[in-house]
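re the bet — no i am not wrong, look at it urself. input seq straight from the record:
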Amino acid sequence: MVAMPNTPGADDLRGALAEAQFLDQLFPNRTDAYVGAEAVYDKVIDAMSATRWAHFACHGAVDLTSPSVGRLLLHDHQRRPLTVADVARLRLDNAEFAFLSACTTAG
């Protein structure tokens, strides 16, 4: 679970923290949560490689001229964006489900 209630350089997402808390209640002791400053590129990439389900409550950004640079805005997005190309390079052999509760995930 990645939740960005406050994102550097972007508007606050008031429901992101409540969304993370709801998932933690729904799946007690089974949810690794990266919230706010904990939701950085390296931690999220490592977690995605090791999990079957992923849930993102954050801002997204789309570039219609170059879809592979579309990205999710994590805490360190200005320095190291999590792009579509980054996710495509991962070996996600155990992946089953990803949920994007993100702004601007499509044009």
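see?? The longest strand covers residues 53-61. told u. also Helices lie at 16-26, 41-50, 84-89. so pay up
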